[in-house]
Design brief:
Helix content is 20%, strand content 35%. The chain has helices at 30-40, 82-89, and strands spanning 9-14, 17-19, 26-28, 46-52, 57-63, 69-75.
């Protein structure tokens, strides 16, 4: 990111965002909070994270220290079609 400071970044990972017991609401994970605090919040380039691991689809948008939205999307592709997953988890937020 330091070598290309004007390029937007999508960060992929594992367990960045979980889903609450209701099957819809986002639930932050310890790992996701650590990434927010140590990497995402202060890097305006990171506008989206995408992760799996947990079953379901959800998203959470926060405002970083530059005042820009950064959205985290959870989607488990293995049990849904790619189109359904992307639409339900992220499309209205990007």
């Amino acid at each position: 990111m330091a070598q290309h400071p004007t390029l937007p970044v999508i960060l992929t990972g594992h367990e960045v965002l979980n889903i609450a017991a209701d099957g819809e609401s986002p639930r932050e994970t310890e790992y996701g909070l650590m990434l927010w605090d140590k990497l995402i919040a202060d890097n305006d380039q990171i506008f989206l994270t995408f992760n799996g691991h947990f079953h379901g689809a959800s998203r959470l948008t926060k405002i970083n220290t530059s005042g820009t939205k950064s959205t985290r999307c959870l989607s488990t592709i293995r049990w849904r079609t790619r189109v359904e997953t992307a639409t339900s988890a992220c499309s209205s937020s990007i």
